[in-house]
Amino acid sequence: KYWRFQWFGGHLRRRWALSTMVPKAGGHKGQCGLGYCRSKWGLRMALPLQGVRVLDLTNVMAGPYCNMLLGDLGADVVKVETFPGGDTSRGFMPQVKGESYCFTVLNRNKRSLAVDLKHPEGHAIVRQLALQADIVTENFRPGVVAKLGLDYASLRLLNPSVIYASMSGFGQTGPYAGRGGYDIIAQGMSG
Predict the structure, then answer these.
(1) Distance between CA atoms of residues 188 and 85, nearest Å
(2) How far, CA to CA in Å, does 168 sit from each of 65, 128, 141, 159, 161?
(3) pTM (predicted TM-score)
(4) Contact, 34 vs 23, CB < 8 A?
(5) How far apart are CA 188 and CA 161, in angstroms?
(6) How far is CA 27 from CA 1, 90, 123, 159, in A?
(7) Which end of the chain is more exposed for a tag (fewer CB within 10 A), N or C?
(8) Strands in 9-67 per DSSP E
């Protein structure tokens, strides 16, 4: 047992709690929003990544899944999709009410915008977002972000404290680095 201090109606109150009584994130009804959850006692609880800003430059599956988890933990995730088509997974089946189930699940708890990264104005928008971000994630093929000026070396000059996560199917170096990598390709190559 330990004492748990909580705010009730503007007053700090103390109650006994067992370690098994500590509510899980989301509480018993899954009442979560951006940056908080409700406990099983109805109290708002801050999530662990509340206040962390993430710039999501990822596409399809691995990157969006990574950022979905960050969003689930309370991070403010801004997804940048390619213009005009958007994330490739928007076209995946099955579709529910005209939207891809896969896209909807992997991109929950995110805000998004479509930007043409090759256009100077679009490039400036993304650099401004990177200036405000704590974390930047990307899953382009190696070398693409360097051509766009959105690689770690370029963004570190704007934002020295940025955390940069780069995902690719076959890593950043090596004989297969330039190849795209999806789950089915990894299964086929590994036997």
Answers:
(1) 28
(2) 14, 24, 6, 23, 23
(3) 0.77
(4) no
(5) 39
(6) 20, 31, 40, 36
(7) C
(8) 11-17, 32-33, 36-38, 44-46, 53-57
Q: Residue 7: beta bridge partners? A: 12
Residue type, 146: A
Alpha-carbon separation of residue 25 from 6, 41, 86, 126, 159 (angstroms) = 16, 12, 31, 32, 31
User: What is the end-to-end Cα distance of the chain in Å, rounded?
Assistant: 52
Burial of residue 16 (number of CB atoms within 10 Å: 0-12, 13-18, 19+): exposed
- pLDDT per residue, tens digit, the chain (191 aa), is 344 444 445 444 444 444 333 334 443 344 555 556 666 666 777 889 999 999 999 999 999 999 999 999 999 999 999 988 889 999 999 999 889 999 999 999 999 999 999 999 999 999 999 999 999 999 998 889 999 999 999 999 999 999 999 998 888 888 988 888 887 888 888 88
What is the Cα–Cα distance from 65 to 183, expressed in whole angstroms? 13
Question: 3-state class of 179 per DSSP?
Answer: coil
Q: Which residues pair with 114 in a beta bridge?
A: 81
